[in-house]
Amino acid sequence: MFGSLAEYLVEKGGLTSGELELVKHVSVQKKIRKNQYLLEEGDNSDFIGFVVKGSFRLFRIGEAGVEHIMRFAIENWWISDYTSFMTGQSSHCYIEALEDSELILFSKEHWEQLLVTIPNFKQMIDKLSAKNFEAHQNRIYSNISETAEVRYDNFVRLYPTIYNRIPLYMIASFLGLTRETLSRVRKQTTKRAV
Fold first, then answer.
1. Which end of the chain is more exposed for a tag (fewer CB within 10 A), N or C?
2. pTM for the full predicted model
Protein backbone atom coordinates (compact mmCIF):
# COMPACT_ATOMS: atom_id res chain seq x y z
CA MET A 1 0.00 0.00 0.00
CA PHE A 2 2.83 2.41 0.84
CA GLY A 3 4.25 1.99 -2.68
CA SER A 4 1.51 4.21 -4.15
CA LEU A 5 2.31 7.00 -1.71
CA ALA A 6 6.05 6.57 -2.27
CA GLU A 7 5.62 6.99 -6.05
CA TYR A 8 3.48 10.06 -5.46
CA LEU A 9 6.01 11.63 -3.07
CA VAL A 10 8.91 11.03 -5.44
CA GLU A 11 7.00 12.42 -8.43
CA LYS A 12 5.43 15.45 -6.71
CA GLY A 13 8.01 16.22 -4.04
CA GLY A 14 11.28 14.66 -5.11
CA LEU A 15 11.70 12.81 -1.83
CA THR A 16 14.76 10.61 -1.42
CA SER A 17 14.72 6.99 -0.28
CA GLY A 18 15.80 8.07 3.20
CA GLU A 19 13.00 10.63 3.39
CA LEU A 20 10.51 8.00 2.21
CA GLU A 21 11.61 5.77 5.09
CA LEU A 22 10.86 8.58 7.54
CA VAL A 23 7.38 8.99 6.02
CA LYS A 24 6.74 5.25 6.06
CA HIS A 25 7.82 4.99 9.70
CA VAL A 26 5.09 7.40 10.87
CA SER A 27 2.31 6.29 8.50
CA VAL A 28 -0.64 4.06 9.38
CA GLN A 29 -2.38 1.93 6.76
CA LYS A 30 -6.16 1.63 6.97
CA LYS A 31 -8.81 -0.22 5.00
CA ILE A 32 -12.35 1.06 5.15
CA ARG A 33 -15.55 -0.41 3.74
CA LYS A 34 -18.03 1.32 1.46
CA ASN A 35 -20.45 3.53 3.43
CA GLN A 36 -18.21 3.48 6.52
CA TYR A 37 -17.32 6.80 8.12
CA LEU A 38 -13.73 7.88 8.53
CA LEU A 39 -14.91 10.96 10.44
CA GLU A 40 -18.21 11.99 11.99
CA GLU A 41 -19.51 15.35 13.13
CA GLY A 42 -18.36 16.07 16.68
CA ASP A 43 -15.12 14.09 16.34
CA ASN A 44 -11.72 15.72 16.09
CA SER A 45 -10.10 15.34 12.69
CA ASP A 46 -6.69 14.44 14.08
CA PHE A 47 -5.44 12.88 10.85
CA ILE A 48 -4.65 13.56 7.22
CA GLY A 49 -5.22 10.67 4.85
CA PHE A 50 -3.74 9.83 1.47
CA VAL A 51 -6.16 7.82 -0.67
CA VAL A 52 -4.45 4.75 -2.10
CA LYS A 53 -7.62 3.08 -3.41
CA GLY A 54 -11.28 4.07 -3.49
CA SER A 55 -13.19 7.29 -3.07
CA PHE A 56 -14.53 9.50 -0.30
CA ARG A 57 -16.80 12.45 0.21
CA LEU A 58 -16.53 15.17 2.84
CA PHE A 59 -19.92 16.66 3.66
CA ARG A 60 -21.95 18.58 6.20
CA ILE A 61 -25.59 18.20 7.14
CA GLY A 62 -27.61 21.38 6.95
CA GLU A 63 -31.13 22.30 7.90
CA ALA A 64 -33.79 19.65 7.50
CA GLY A 65 -31.09 16.99 7.18
CA VAL A 66 -29.91 18.12 3.74
CA GLU A 67 -26.37 16.93 2.90
CA HIS A 68 -23.96 19.44 1.39
CA ILE A 69 -20.92 17.83 -0.22
CA MET A 70 -17.86 19.98 0.07
CA ARG A 71 -15.29 17.79 -1.63
CA PHE A 72 -14.48 14.39 -3.03
CA ALA A 73 -11.22 12.47 -2.84
CA ILE A 74 -10.03 9.61 -5.03
CA GLU A 75 -6.69 7.85 -5.55
CA ASN A 76 -3.64 10.09 -5.00
CA TRP A 77 -5.71 12.79 -3.28
CA TRP A 78 -5.54 13.84 0.36
CA ILE A 79 -8.56 13.90 2.68
CA SER A 80 -9.23 15.46 6.08
CA ASP A 81 -11.41 18.09 7.69
CA TYR A 82 -8.57 20.59 7.54
CA THR A 83 -10.31 23.13 9.75
CA SER A 84 -10.68 20.63 12.58
CA PHE A 85 -7.18 19.28 11.91
CA MET A 86 -5.57 22.73 12.13
CA THR A 87 -7.60 24.13 15.05
CA GLY A 88 -8.11 20.99 17.13
CA GLN A 89 -11.81 21.84 17.37
CA SER A 90 -14.60 19.34 16.83
CA SER A 91 -15.52 18.71 13.22
CA HIS A 92 -18.79 19.81 11.66
CA CYS A 93 -18.21 17.35 8.83
CA TYR A 94 -18.45 13.71 7.91
CA ILE A 95 -16.02 11.77 5.73
CA GLU A 96 -17.61 8.69 4.17
CA ALA A 97 -16.10 6.00 1.96
CA LEU A 98 -18.03 5.75 -1.31
CA GLU A 99 -16.24 2.52 -2.27
CA ASP A 100 -14.19 -0.06 -0.42
CA SER A 101 -11.07 2.01 0.13
CA GLU A 102 -7.51 2.05 1.42
CA LEU A 103 -5.71 5.00 2.97
CA ILE A 104 -2.46 5.93 4.56
CA LEU A 105 -3.06 8.10 7.61
CA PHE A 106 -0.82 10.54 9.44
CA SER A 107 -1.52 11.86 12.92
CA LYS A 108 -1.23 15.61 13.50
CA GLU A 109 1.95 15.09 15.53
CA HIS A 110 3.61 13.01 12.81
CA TRP A 111 2.38 15.31 10.03
CA GLU A 112 3.96 18.33 11.71
CA GLN A 113 7.13 16.34 12.30
CA LEU A 114 7.38 15.53 8.57
CA LEU A 115 6.85 19.18 7.63
CA VAL A 116 9.73 20.22 9.89
CA THR A 117 12.20 17.44 9.09
CA ILE A 118 11.68 17.04 5.32
CA PRO A 119 11.90 20.38 3.44
CA ASN A 120 10.83 18.79 0.14
CA PHE A 121 7.72 17.39 1.83
CA LYS A 122 6.82 20.81 3.24
CA GLN A 123 7.39 22.48 -0.12
CA MET A 124 5.16 19.90 -1.84
CA ILE A 125 2.39 20.33 0.75
CA ASP A 126 2.61 24.13 0.49
CA LYS A 127 2.16 23.90 -3.30
CA LEU A 128 -0.76 21.49 -2.92
CA SER A 129 -2.37 23.75 -0.32
CA ALA A 130 -2.07 26.73 -2.66
CA LYS A 131 -3.66 24.75 -5.51
CA ASN A 132 -6.41 23.54 -3.17
CA PHE A 133 -7.10 27.10 -2.02
CA GLU A 134 -7.29 28.28 -5.63
CA ALA A 135 -9.70 25.45 -6.52
CA HIS A 136 -11.83 26.32 -3.50
CA GLN A 137 -12.00 29.99 -4.53
CA ASN A 138 -12.84 29.05 -8.12
CA ARG A 139 -15.64 26.80 -6.89
CA ILE A 140 -17.12 29.55 -4.74
CA TYR A 141 -16.97 31.96 -7.67
CA SER A 142 -18.54 29.39 -9.98
CA ASN A 143 -21.38 28.67 -7.55
CA ILE A 144 -22.29 32.35 -7.17
CA SER A 145 -21.77 33.50 -10.75
CA GLU A 146 -22.20 30.68 -13.26
CA THR A 147 -25.24 28.89 -14.56
CA ALA A 148 -26.06 25.32 -13.63
CA GLU A 149 -25.07 24.25 -17.15
CA VAL A 150 -21.61 25.82 -16.88
CA ARG A 151 -21.01 24.33 -13.41
CA TYR A 152 -21.97 20.88 -14.67
CA ASP A 153 -19.82 21.17 -17.81
CA ASN A 154 -16.85 22.33 -15.75
CA PHE A 155 -17.26 19.41 -13.32
CA VAL A 156 -17.36 16.85 -16.12
CA ARG A 157 -14.34 18.48 -17.80
CA LEU A 158 -12.24 18.90 -14.66
CA TYR A 159 -13.13 15.63 -12.90
CA PRO A 160 -13.92 12.98 -15.54
CA THR A 161 -12.65 10.14 -13.37
CA ILE A 162 -14.84 11.23 -10.46
CA TYR A 163 -17.89 11.82 -12.64
CA ASN A 164 -18.07 8.16 -13.64
CA ARG A 165 -17.74 6.88 -10.06
CA ILE A 166 -19.99 9.14 -8.02
CA PRO A 167 -23.81 8.94 -7.89
CA LEU A 168 -25.52 11.83 -9.68
CA TYR A 169 -27.34 13.04 -6.57
CA MET A 170 -23.94 13.57 -4.91
CA ILE A 171 -22.68 15.51 -7.91
CA ALA A 172 -25.82 17.66 -7.68
CA SER A 173 -25.09 18.34 -4.01
CA PHE A 174 -21.45 19.22 -4.76
CA LEU A 175 -22.56 21.65 -7.48
CA GLY A 176 -25.22 23.23 -5.26
CA LEU A 177 -28.04 21.98 -7.51
CA THR A 178 -31.18 20.00 -6.91
CA ARG A 179 -31.42 16.54 -8.44
CA GLU A 180 -34.12 17.83 -10.76
CA THR A 181 -31.97 20.69 -12.01
CA LEU A 182 -29.03 18.36 -12.63
CA SER A 183 -31.31 15.98 -14.52
CA ARG A 184 -32.55 18.84 -16.72
CA VAL A 185 -29.00 20.09 -17.35
CA ARG A 186 -27.80 16.60 -18.31
CA LYS A 187 -30.68 16.20 -20.78
CA GLN A 188 -29.85 19.55 -22.38
CA THR A 189 -26.18 18.60 -22.60
CA THR A 190 -27.07 15.30 -24.27
CA LYS A 191 -29.28 17.10 -26.82
CA ARG A 192 -26.47 19.56 -27.64
CA ALA A 193 -24.03 16.68 -28.17
CA VAL A 194 -26.30 14.92 -30.67
1. C
2. 0.90
